[in-house]
Amino acid sequence: MVRAYSQEHTYKHPWERVTAASWRKFADPENKRTLSHILEVDTLNHKLDPSSGKLHTTRAITIHAPGPWFVRKIIGQDICHCVESTVVDAKSRSMQLATRNISLQKFIEVEEKIRYDPHPENPNEWTICKQETSIRIKPLSTLASMAEKIEQRCVDRFQVNSAKGREVMERICKYLEAESRGISFRS
């Protein structure tokens, strides 16, 4: 069985500011406490395609393994490695991120897609964020008998972490706005 959910959020900040905040989300030391499930983020490569003008970036993200504590005990691993692929098209003002786990795949598959675009109602001042996440416990894994409950707990945890991520993004956007006005600002 697959648990999937989608969310939309409107940032009342321009696309350029929101996407800049997205790049800074994991790097800002103030966010370590809020995003405590993120252990490490490393850029593996980045390439600017000269013909299309698109920026392609791949990052490795190490997180605390998803799901409740007893799942981590069963699978014998506390961390999970993920790969995030990002494409930024500055011409069309679109940023798309796709993240999936590359470890624990014999137990669980998680895929998250996020897209930032100018909001259709106010494209120069607001940004719409669309997020889709799917979580699937493998049917033949040790966790199969508890799959539905574990998938739901994972969804619940991802939704909490998504809310924390939006909180961090809002804080960074406000900081970037203040910075652009020459104001020193820390929340």
Tag the structure with descriptive keywords.
alpha+beta, 187 residues, 7 strands, seven-stranded antiparallel β-sheet
Describe it:
- With 187 residues, the chain is α+β, with helices and mostly antiparallel strands.
- The chain contains 3 helices and 7 strands.
- A 7-stranded antiparallel β-sheet has the order 1-7-6-5-4-3-2.
- Helix 1 (15-24) crosses helix 3.
- It is globular.
- The model has no long low-confidence stretch (mean pLDDT 88).
Class by helix and strand content? alpha+beta
Roughly what percent helix?
25-40%
Cα end-to-end separation = 42 Å
Which sequence of SSEs, written as H and E, runs from N to C? EHEEHEEEEH
Q: How are the elements arranged and paired?
A:
Layout: E1 2-11, H1 15-24, E2 38-48, E3 54-64, H2 69-75, E4 79-89, E5 94-101, E6 108-118, E7 127-137, H3 147-180
Short characterization:
By secondary structure, the protein is an alpha+beta fold. It is built from three helices and seven strands.
